[in-house]
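Human: My hope is that you can spare some time for a protein that puzzles me. I am handing you a single protein, as its sequence and its fold in token form. Could you go through the record with me and say what the backbone is doing? Take your time, and here it is.
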Amino acid sequence: MIARPDTGRTRAAIPPLVLIYGVLGLAPFLAPPLVGRLAPHLSGLAATGLALYGGLILSFLGGARWGMAVIEDRPRGAVVTMAMIPTLVGLALLMLPPSAQTAKLAGLAAALSVHLVWDLRSPGLPSWYPSLRILLTAGAVVGLVAGAALLRG
């Protein structure tokens, strides 16, 4: 347990299985820029895969928050509504034309970052959740920004 300086509450360690799967889930964010760099003829495919995975994860995060909200007897309407937004933003970004690949990847990085802020400011989440989300969002944003910079095509 680690004392949280802002509240004095303790923060539990991230459950090992959650951490393992979370870190493994960074591979589809980090591999495409590397693949595109090592095999330039695959950069278009790598960028498409990176964008699709980013959109899926954004939707997954919204779904996770929706699921956490609706287990309550009286779900907060604002949270249920806000939890739908990541899926819609992800879909809108994925529908951008291939010529907007850089904007698509940068937009997904921005959307994941906004979702992180929402998670960090939300009460009622497991005490370990902020640590997990910071780690995973950082990895995802690095991959998406690298992809935006390196994967053109």
The chain has six helices and two strands. The beta strands are 2-3, 10-11. Residues 55 and 90 are 5 Å apart (CA to CA). The longest helix spans residues 43-70.
